[in-house]
Each structure stands twice: as C-alpha cells, then as structure tokens.
Automatic annotation (TrEMBL):
GO cellular component, one term: cytosol
InterPro entries assigned to the protein according to its UniProt record, in alphabetical order: DNA_helicase_UvrD/REP, P-loop_NTPase, UvrD-like_helicase_C
Organismal lineage: Bacteria, Pseudomonadati, Pseudomonadota, Alphaproteobacteria, Rhodospirillales
A GO term for molecular function: ATP binding
Domain UvrD-like helicase C-terminal, residue spans: 356-403
Protein name per UniProt: DNA 3'-5' helicase II
GO biological process: recombinational repair
UniProt xrefs under PANTHER family: ATP-DEPENDENT DNA HELICASE SRS2, UVRD / RECB / PCRA DNA HELICASE FAMILY MEMBER
Length: 418
C-alpha cells in the first residue's frame, strides 16, 4: 500500500499539497495512454473545488463524489454482487450502495479493473467518510497509490467520533501535518480559529467581533451596517448553524428595513446544500404511498423548484408513454426528485462573489472575504460540536468575521466560553 496523507486546519493548504504531490508523482511515473487520475470527495462542494484544481494541472482525470463512484462500480459488477449475496440497492440509498461497492472492490478482479485505468487516486475531505466509504478507500489502497487529505476537527457528524478515517490513516501512513494558514493572515481570525480548536475562549478584536443581538431590530442593525461598510471590499456570507426562526426573521428584516445609518435594505438569498434542498422538497410532496400518474404529476407541479419539477414530470411522462404505466409509488417519485436535485447541484455554476446566506454545512469548502455568523439559542449538540460548528463558519472568512449571538446568556457557554 502506497499512501501519502496530509492533515491540517481549515485554510492550511491540504488541497494544495495534494495537487503538488500529484504533480510530483506523475512526473516520476507518468500516466499511460488511456489512464486517468481518480479524484474522490464526499460532498459536491469539495468535488467542484478539486475539479477546478485538477483542470489547471492538465492531467487526464475523473473527479466525482465517492457515492457516484460507488454506484458505477455496483452497476458494472452487479452480477458479481448478486453472486456474493448482495441485492442491488436503490441508487439513492447511498450507504447501501457504498457497502456493496466496498465488498466488490475487496475482490481482486474488481479493484484491478479500477487500477488499470486509474493508477492513482486522490481523496479530499476524508474526515467525512463513514465506515462504508472508508472500506472503499481501503480497498482501493490495495492496488492504487492514494493521496489523501483530512481535518478531523472539520467533521460535523457526531457519529464519526472517534473518526474512522483519521484513526485508520495514522495507523497505515506517516501523516504530514500542515499548520501554516494560507487562507488568511488576519491575526484576529487566526486567534479565534486556534481558540475554538483548543477549547478556549475566542476573543473579540477588530477583525473578529462577537456581539449579543437578542432582538431582530438590533441584529438587523449590526448585520446591515457591517454589509454596508464592508461589502465594497469583497464577498459577504451570512452563515448560521440551521435555518431557524432567528436567522429567518433577521434576514427578512434586513431585506425590508434600512438602518438609521442608511445601510440596506439588502436581499440575501439562501444557498442551501443538496441535502437541505432535498429535505425541503420531500416535505412539500403531498403524495400517497401509491398514486395515479395524474395525481403524482399534480403533486410534483406543486413543488417550489422549477428545474426539478421539469425533470421529474419528464420521467412521469416517459412512464406513461413508453411503459404504459398508470401508477407509481411515492418511493419512486422521491428517488426521481433526489436524482434531479443531485444532477442540478452537480452541474450548477456557483460564484462566491455575491451576498449569500448559508448553513454551516452548506458553507463547507467555500471562502468569502467577510462572514457574518447568526448564532441562535436553538443550536443543539455538545460543547465540542458547537465549537466545531463555529470554527467551520469562522474559517470561511478571509478578512473579517462578525458573530451575532441571539442573547447575552449564550456568551457564557460554549462555543463562546471555555
């Protein structure tokens, strides 16, 4: 097994070192005709970032999420999967797909099939890998050269503690620790990030400020003035742990009312993660467990996403015209909605130069000149989890960060106090 591993905090150059090491490796052992680099990530955000970096290097490559790669393996080797006793899972049952793909890749012929065209694989943001997905990476390591990067503290899944990937990689490889920040040189931001990682109290300064904003008008004043004074210096993101009452009411007020200083109103659109979009749409789907195609079509038309509606209605039309079907199950429609959301997010063009609102999860793998964090009372989780959430928000900022807590009482507890 040949593995190069890198660990370090947000903005410390893990992806840069992956690209640098890849270039060195391919200079020593060039790709043969028809071969490509395999680049895997857990989330589409990091996939887009990797895709941009790999395109600049000029090597032949395939960049995909590990779930998409797993599905391709399962479809290609479905007969062997059935022979091994595995039923073909739904494409949208991602954990089951990855479990079957891992079992297949543990077979000599299957991993050899991958290695023949992909002799080297990159895995970015590997701290987010569940056990099923880690099995895939371990299986690939038997025949492929692996270049991997992770930061355990950026993992927001409390079910992955202790972290499976980080425990495995420290046992099989000499991990290179990256501890020099490159995203920002602003001392206040660096000090706040360090304090959060170490379980200490983050201190307000000039470029990192924590304020209590218990009322919507006060939060609107702080937020709108910050945007008005700083937006000319670059992109601004409003980040919150969850889309709840506090964040929703503050952003609505910001969109409607200017401050006494003349800043605003500002319309701030939500940029939600794939899972957040899917959860919202499935919650809007009013459909029985089995329904006629007409009822399903009417239910889909009521969803608040035109591109998704068009894609799913096209599939429903195909079921009627090409297959003569008169009914569908709710599960089938949910599966089609999930595929349409995934496809639209995968190929969406995204620029981080505007004014956006995101959840902490949705902001991963993004960076902005300025960040405003809305921290409500409703944040759940352990003290450690809250520090990780705030860390992942603060480290999106390159120049400044303003944190607005819903009440004074929050400032006496984690993540604002040790």
């Amino acid at each position: 097994m040949t593995v190069r591993a890198f660990q370090g905090g947000a903005g410390c150059g893990k992806t840069h070192r992956l690209m640098q090491t890849l270039g060195d490796s391919l200079a020593d052992c060039p790709l043969a005709p028809g071969q490509r680099v395999l680049a895997l990530t857990f989330m589409h955000g990091s996939r887009r970032r990797l895709d941009d970096r790999l395109r600049d290097l000029g090597y032949a490559y395939e960049c995909t999420t590990i779930d998409s790669f797993a599905w391709r393996v399962v479809v290609r080797w479905r007969s062997l999967a059935e022979h091994l006793g595995h039923a073909l899972p739904l494409e949208t049952d991602y954990d089951a797909v990855c479990a079957v793909a891992a079992a297949l890749l543990e077979q000599f012929d299957v991993v050899g099939w991958v290695a023949a065209t992909h002799p080297i694989a990159l895995v970015d943001e590997a701290q987010d890998l569940t056990e099923e997905r880690l099995r895939i990476v371990r299986a690939l390591g038997a025949r492929l050269t692996l270049l991997v990067a992770a930061d355990e503290f950026q993992c927001l899944d409390e079910g992955l503690r202790p972290n499976p990937f980080c425990s495995w990689i420290t046992a099989v490889a000499d991990v290179e620790i990256l501890d020099r920040p490159h995203r920002t040189r602003v001392a206040d931001l660096l000090s706040a990030a360090t304090a959060l990682r170490q379980g200490e109290t983050p201190m307000s300064g000039r470029q990192f400020v924590i304020r209590a904003a218990p009322s919507v008008p006060l939060a609107r004043t702080f937020l709108s003035n910050q945007i008005g004074w700083c937006r000319g210096a670059g992109s601004v993101a409003v980040i919150t742990p969850s889309v709840g009452r506090y964040a929703t009411n503050v952003l609505q007020s910001v969109a409607e009312t200017p401050t006494k200083q003349g800043n605003g109103p500002y319309s701030i659109s939500w940029d939600r993660s794939e899972q957040e979009v899917l959860t919202t749409l499935l919650g809007q789907l009013e459909l029985m467990e089995r329904a006629s195609l007409m009822a399903a079509d009417q239910a889909v038309q009521r969803l608040g996403a035109p591109a998704i509606v068009t894609a799913v209605r096209a599939w429903l039309g195909t079921q009627q015209r090409a297959l003569g079907r008169t009914e569908v199950s709710r599960r089938e429609v949910e599966d089609r909605i999930s595929r349409a959301v995934s496809h639209s997010r995968r190929f969406a063009f995204r620029k981080d130069d505007g004014l956006l609102a995101l959840t902490v999860h949705g902001a991963k793998n993004r960076e902005f000149d300025g960040v405003i964090v809305l921290w409500p009372y409703a944040v759940v989780g352990s003290a450690e989890q809250k520090r990780r959430l705030l860390y992942n928000a603060v480290t999106r900022a390159k120049r400044w960060c303003l944190v607005l807590a819903e009440g004074d009482r929050l400032l006496g507890h984690a993540p604002f106090a040790a």
